[in-house]
Amino acid sequence: TQSENILGYYVNVERIPNSCRDSPNRIFLKDRKVLLNISMAYYRVNISAYNEAGESPQVIYIVPDFSATDLPGQIHVKHLGTNAVVTWTPEYNPKCFVVDWGTSKEDMRMKIVNTATGNFTLENFQPYKSYKIMVHASDVCQCESFTRHEKTFGVTHFYSVEGVPRTGPANVTILNITKHSALVKWTEIAAEDCLGFLQGYRISFTDSSKKRSLAVTLNSSTTSYRLTGLKEKTIYRVQISGFTNAGEGPPTLSQPFSTPKYGTVEAICICVTQHQS
Questions:
Q1: 247: three-class secondary structure by DSSP
Q2: What are phi and psi of 227, to 5 degrees?
Q3: Residue 277 CB: number of other CB atoms within 10 A?
Q4: Chain Cα centroid distance, residue 16
Q5: Residue 89 contacts by C-beta under 8 Å, 6 or more apart in sequence?
């Protein structure tokens, strides 16, 4: 068959965004692997095979996000109305910086900054949206491919205006119910529903007399908590909400659960979440 007579592969590497409108770098390969030395900008990789009969359809691959824990520089962002002033301190003086910003891979914009001052104003930020801002150093500043030249200096995330989460956590589940305790687990609030930097969760419970416990504040990476101080043979209901710097969002309420008189309730109480209006 034709697939058994592959002569090689074409690999097109294109930067996202590609404001310079350059044609992608095309690499010809015999092997099924290639080592790319690229920055932390987003890249689209198109791969096709070829033989004597021609070229196959392309497979498109988006290079995933890299970890930004060991970058050389820090970026600082200060909002100014709908604009943002981005500042950084270069560790050396490249010929220019390339700034990428946007809410997603499909929404990235790019600007070449031909100055060594380390600041730049970005415009038209929308409230309640998370923006990713990346600064790359480059010694090639003409409008050409930066694939071989740029190195990422720093990455940060930014909200021009933060809001409260629009929803509470999902999949609230009650486990290991004893006379005096119960384990609560939940799924973190989705990033697009946070509308700001999620700072943590607040969890409390009420009993059948509607008496509410003091709320416990947990950090944003926590997705489980053991309730203690419960009374035996009592019906309880848990509520959990997330909060940002702008305040607390609506809570998610668990289905009622009952503590036993003796021992432990082995059966898991799967709670259908509902959002309090």
A1: strand
A2: -75, 135
A3: 4
A4: 18
A5: 73, 74, 118
Bin 211: left if φ > 0, else alpha if -120 < ψ < 50, else beta: beta
Choose among 113, 74, 116, 111: nearest CA to 92: 116
Helix (H, G, I), strand (E, B) or coil at 5: helix
Per-residue pLDDT reduced to its tens digit, 81-91: 888 899 888 77
Burial class (CB in 10 A: 0-12, 13-18, 19+), 155: buried
Compute the average pLDDT of residues 5-26. 80
Residues 126-151: pLDDT tens digits? Answer: 999 999 999 988 888 776 666 678 88
Please count the residues of the chain: 277
Rounded to 5 degrees, what are φ and ψ at 242?
-105, 160
pTM exceeds 0.85, yes or no = no
Tens digit of each residue's pLDDT (9 = 90 or more) over 92-117: 788 888 899 999 888 899 888 877 66
Residue 17 · residue 143 · CB < 8 Å: no
State how far the Cα of 141 lies from the Cα of 150, in Å rounded to an integer: 10
The structure tokens listed for 206 are 């009420």
CA-CA-CA-CA torsion sign (18, 22, 23, 24): negative
The confidence score (pLDDT) of residue 124 equals 84
What is the DSSP code (8-state) at residue 192?
Answer: H
User: What pLDDT shows up at residue 267?
Assistant: 46
